[in-house]
Specification:
Elements: E1 11-17, H1 21-32, E2 37-41, H2 60-77, E3 82-85, E4 88-92, E5 97-102, E6 105-116, E7 120-122, E8 135-137, H3 138-148, E9 155-160, H4 163-174, E10 178-184, H5 188-191, H6 202-217, E11 222-224, E12 226-232, E13 239-244, E14 257-260, E15 263-267, E16 270-272, H7 275-279, E17 284-287, E18 292-295, E19 308-310, H8 320-337, H9 343-370, E20 386-388, E21 393-394, H10 395-405, H11 411-418, H12 430-442, H13 463-469
Helix pairs in contact: 1-2, 1-8, 3-4, 4-6, 8-9, 10-11, 10-12
The structure holds flavin-adenine dinucleotide.
The site of flavin-adenine dinucleotide has 35 residues, from helix 1, strand 2, strand 4, strand 7 and helix 3.
Length: 478
């Protein structure tokens, strides 16, 4: 796919942000209805988080979904879509004007409808030593391995909860890493009551079974009901400390074990990327079954802002197949919103996609429920653990601020008080951690902590590029 935007238009009917399975399906559906479509992604290659890289260590079930995605990609390439790879969207306003940054330039793109398909990010529960070189997220290790064939280290431990640990461990083992263990916080006895939800998802099980086969051959131990509670080393990671967890997920002091490793890959599941939806003025709601803070959507995947749609894991953590179905529905719904397809063509297709999505979402809900990090696990966040890596703010500083904020306690008041969330990631990593800390300290539900107020730019952009924009017709926000 060419990296092209030197002659890109200044306005389109539909802009799709994100070229993963959801974005590809949305762009194709909207383009098929005759609308002009821009497909924007900050990465240099299309495909998102799922459709990247080589085939090493991949199960047959994944290969089948990837083949479907690759087919979709080929269709999109020939659909006359305006591709903007290597372009970061850093602002979206309620008039549906996007602001992008690419090739050193900030530009504005007027649209009549937007589909946000910007995927998810990983959740991490911090612990002492999590900022040491050698500690990374499982997704980062997977991307290194998938796209570049690079291993995170020679002796690796994966820790956290959820199927991403299993998939990543199998891939690393297949590429030749010595995987010293998978440390999974949940326990199979917690999974049994949810067994019925697995019905009809045999492909997911055969995928897991293939990964387990790779791990069995590599003699990789799976430790259930345990967590990494510390990482240590002189200048980089040398060892991890593993503890057993009690029924509430609190680490037990007795029986801790040290393992020598040079890489630790951590993941506690995925959280939807909602900041662009929020900037556009869409209402969010807290739904842990969909992954936490998510946009409030109608049955056409439209937000509370007319013409602004959200599809895929930016709306609900449910896997690549669900993302493709949601993308198609959002693309068609955007076309319907702009009167580019008639209701009698849209409604039956919508009903078919809704049906499929419901089935796929059910499995996602089960995984999100089963592998949610238990509240007791938050006790691994000690006072001197950094919770905001960008601004180097510790949990101790945050808990002192929580005590001082009194009735004014919100994420934004913590931001003013301690500088959390003011760094380059704009709170994407620390906001969920802060929500958990507020809940731990006050006993109130996580939802009560709310979210940071969204502010542009959501990604770092050079100031001179924004300043140069003011001379264009759309320009920056007033
Ligand atoms: C780290 C990680 C690892 C995963 N590993 C697995 C796995 O091993 N097996 C599995 O089955 N599933 C895995 N998943 C889930 C799988 O990737 C998703 O189900 C699927 O990719 C969701 O598709 P999507 O289109 O919603 O989002 P994605 O595929 O994530 O695509 C989102 C795209 O949006 C782009 N984007 C985001 N924000 C902006 C912006 N501001 N400007 C421009 N572009 C932007 C991103 O660059 C990305 O290309 C993983 C997900 C993550 C996040």
């Amino acid at each position: 796919v060419p990296i092209a935007d030197a002659i890109s238009p200044l306005s389109v009917d539909v802009a799709v942000v994100g070229s993963g399975p959801a974005g590809l399906a949305a762009a194709l559906a909207a383009a098929e209805s005759g609308l002009t479509v821009s497909l924007i992604d900050e990465r240099p290659a299309a495909g998102g988080q799922y459709l990247v890289g080589n085939d090493v260590g991949q199960s047959a079930a994944v290969a089948a979904t990837e083949r479907l995605g690759a087919y979709l990609l080929r269709q999109v390439v020939t659909a006359g879509i305006d591709w903007r790879l290597g372009s970061t969207v850093w602002d979206l306003d309620s008039r549906l004007t996007l602001r992008l940054f690419s090739h050193g330039q900030a530009t504005a793109l007027k649209t009549r409808a937007v589909v946000l398909a910007c995927g998810a990010r990983e959740q991490v529960i911090p612990f002492p030593g999590w900022t040491l070189p050698g500690v990374m997220t499982a997704g980062a290790a997977q991307l290194l391995a998938k796209r570049y064939g690079v291993l995170p280290g020679k002796r690796v431990v994966l820790a956290g909860s959820g199927p991403l640990l299993l998939a990543t461990a199998a891939r690393l083992a297949a590429l030749g890493a010595h995987v010293a263990g998978i440390v999974e916080a949940s326990h199979p006895r917690m999974w049994l009551p949810h067994a019925r939800a697995a019905w009809g998802h045999g492909d997911r099980f055969s995928e897991a079974w293939e990964y387990l086969g790779t791990l069995r051959r590599g003699r990789v131990p799976y430790r259930f009901g345990q967590a990494v509670v510390a990482a240590s080393g002189e200048e980089k990671l040398e060892r991890v400390t593993i503890a057993r967890l009690d029924a509430a997920g609190r680490p037990l002091a007795e029986g801790c074990e040290d393992l020598a490793v040079d890489a630790l890959c951590v993941s506690f599941g995925l959280l939807p990327n909602t900041e662009l939806a929020q900037l556009g003025g869409a209402r969010l709601l807290f739904d842990p079954r969909r992954g936490g803070w998510v946009p409030d959507l109608d049955t056409s995947l439209q937000t509370t802002v007319p013409g602004l749609f959200v599809a895929g894991e930016a709306a609900s953590i449910a896997g690549a197949a669900a993302a493709m179905s949601a993308g198609r529905l959002a693309g068609l719904a955007a076309a319907r919103h702009l009167d580019s397809i008639p209701a009698d063509a849209f409604e039956p297709e919508k009903a078919r996609l809704e049906d499929r999505l419901r089935r796929e979402a059910r499995f996602g809900i089960t995984l999100n429920t089963l592998f949610a990090p238990p509240p007791g696990l938050d006790t691994i966040i000690t006072g001197d653990t950094f919770v905001c890596r960008c601004e180097e703010v510790t949990a101790g500083e945050v808990t002192a601020a929580i005590a001082n904020c009194g009735d004014w306690l919100t994420l934004d008041s913590l931001k003013i008080w301690t500088r959390v969330g003011q760094g380059p990631c704009q709170g994407r990593t620390c906001a969920p951690i802060l929500g958990r800390l507020i809940s731990r300290e006050t006993g109130r539900p996580i939802a009560d902590a709310g979210t940071f107020a969204a502010r542009p730019p959501v990604r770092p952009v050079p100031l001179h590029a924004i300043a140069a924009m003011e001379r264009t017709d759309v320009g920056v926000r007033q």
